[in-house]
Design brief:
Two copies of one chain form a homodimer.
Chain A (H helix, E strand, L loop, with lengths): L6 H18 L9 H8 L3 H7 L3 H19 L9 H18 L1 H9 L3 H20 L3 H6 L3 H21 L6 H11 L5
Chain A binds a DNA duplex through α1 and α3.
Amino acid sequence: MNEKTDLRIIKTKKILFETLLKLMKHKNFDKIKISDICEEALINRSTFYAHYQDKYELLDDLVEDLKVSLLKDLENYENNISSKEYIMRLLSILIDHIDEKKDIYSAILLNNRNGFLIDFLIDVTERESAIRLKNNEDIVKSQLPLEIIIRFYAGGLINICLSWLTQKEKYTKEELLEYINKLIPEKI
Amino acid sequence: MNEKTDLRIIKTKKILFETLLKLMKHKNFDKIKISDICEEALINRSTFYAHYQDKYELLDDLVEDLKVSLLKDLENYENNISSKEYIMRLLSILIDHIDEKKDIYSAILLNNRNGFLIDFLIDVTERESAIRLKNNEDIVKSQLPLEIIIRFYAGGLINICLSWLTQKEKYTKEELLEYINKLIPEKI
DNA sequence: TATTTATAATACATTTTGTTTGATATTTGA
DNA sequence: TCAAATATCAAACAAAATGTATTATAAATA
């Protein structure tokens, strides 16, 4: 009977997640009080403290769930693709993932917790690509440090994704992919 | 006799800036109390409240100074350069600026206020390039939306700059410029 | 169904913030 | 240089928010 199995705990955490996101749509995270969250969630404050030390831990926990889901999305991949194909595939997954979790990303973006979000996306994206592109022919031939390539493209892709979200999807996913396709050279 | 001219005010704010940065090197911004800052700064708490409503305003004020200095750095520019030349020039200025203000950037980066920093850099960079590249020949010919190009490259450059900083300048500025030079096509 | 345990209710101590007032020190501007 | 203006300090205090402890109740488990 651990933290994860008891239905009451799962339910409580779920409500806290939803309530925090709801509040973050109208109020900056910095200004949200633990008592605000509990009041809105109809959960006793002592119950909150039974699970989290402070509101930062709550947000951490929420983002941890996001991470698990993104990593899962990144799991399926093809081997032996060119660096460009890989980058395009990465962008496609990122867009789908962000689109699916739109509510969460929007709420966090609306606040000044973007650092949090960007850090998290950069981290996952960079780790993922570091593994996949390690022995990629194009990259090896380019003689550029892998980390430089990864950081450059990861930053570009994530900025594109997040601004796409804040612009209320001004372009379709397909248009976006087409544009980026033109921006990335066939051979790095 | 406004806010800016009285020597006592200038001095107080300067000390508050320095103290906040000092504390941020050892402690997360979220966990820093106004009373911590005042104690360390040897400034009365009521004096703090005479200038700022809360610690967020203090950080805002500090970053506002950064913004002024970056905008000044970006002022001098040549006209009629290719889009690639422009991007390379932008990167060069960004690196110099961040290098010069290393202490401030590092302190803020160490905390989870990167969102703050990234937002700020993205904002300045995107505005600057939107103006400069508006009628750029290469861009017009590419038939890609200007904002897409800008967001893609701004994200890439800033991620490169910030990770360069956190990596304690593993590469020289010249090496970095050379690498990025290879990553950006002559014609967009 | 018996047992375990999460939640609620309540009360309370502590911490931190935010405000006020009057004395003191510093800066300004003539 | 000096009077006027005002920023800072010191201290005390009110209010807000956090954090903890206890007991009763409700819900989940096995």
